[in-house]
Amino acid sequence: DSALDFLNKHIVLEKIRTVVRDGNKAGLITMHDPNFAMEYCDRLFLLKDGKIVTQIHMKTDSKEKIKESLSMIYGEIELLKNGIFDGEKAGCIKRITQKKSGSLRIQLHY
Question: Rounded to whole angstroms, what are the CA distances from 2 to 38, 70, 88?
Fold first, then answer.
C-alpha cells in the first residue's frame, strides 16, 4: 500500500484496472486493505504467515465462500448484506467494525 490519500488511491487503482483490462493483461498487486482489494481486483490471494491459504474470485464466489475465506485471516466475522446478493458478483467491503466480543463485522457493498 502506498501513502496516497483516499481519493488519489482510488484514481491510481482505477487507472491500473483500466490498463490491465483494456490491454487484456494480468496484473499482480500487493495490498493490505481488503476494502481496496475487493473493490479493484478480480481475484484475491489471501496470505497468512507468508503462505497462500485461500483465494477469492470476486465475480463468482458466494457470500459464504467470502466469509469463510476472510475468516481464515481475520477470525470470526459476520457479513452484513447491503443491497441484493445475486451469487454472481460478490461486491466489495463497505465497512469493517469490531464487535465487543472481538469478532469482526464486515458490511459488503454491491
Answer: 17, 22, 31
